[in-house]
Amino acid sequence: MKPGTKRAMPHYLGPMRLPASLACAAAVLLAGGCAVPDGDGPVSEVLLLRADSPASAGSDAAALPARVQVIADRCVGAVAGGRAYLIRFPSDTAWDGETVRIPNSPAVRVGDDVTFGGSGSAIDVNGADRDVPAGCAAAADEIWYVGAVTFG
């Protein structure tokens, strides 16, 4: 590799940017938002995608063992088996920029290894997933609708 050449990293791994997203809790409490670099572009907030229904209405028909990550430096998601997933949480999920709290489930943080109960599907940016930022949709392989979360 030539000096000064950047090594290609998978688009959903941001080892230098991930700690910035973890340090956002204070910014959320003080300013109501959390900002991390979005590639070489402007600073943007890390988003938690929410479904239209609460946790009690969520399905846990399938299990996705995964590590919670920030996808495309913008959306809370997960990585499992070399695939990136956007995670759509129940409508009553709380998010403070660092910790995700789904009712009747343990709190999880970016970097935790968890099992998401729910179901997955292709990302439909022209339909149900039209609120997903383009960068997040392009960086993910699938979207996972969460009904519950457990550790292990």
From TrEMBL:
Signal peptide: 1-25
Keywords in alphabetical order: Signal
PROSITE patterns: PROKAR_LIPOPROTEIN
Descriptive protein name: Uncharacterized protein
Organism lineage: Bacteria, Pseudomonadati, Pseudomonadota, Gammaproteobacteria, Lysobacterales
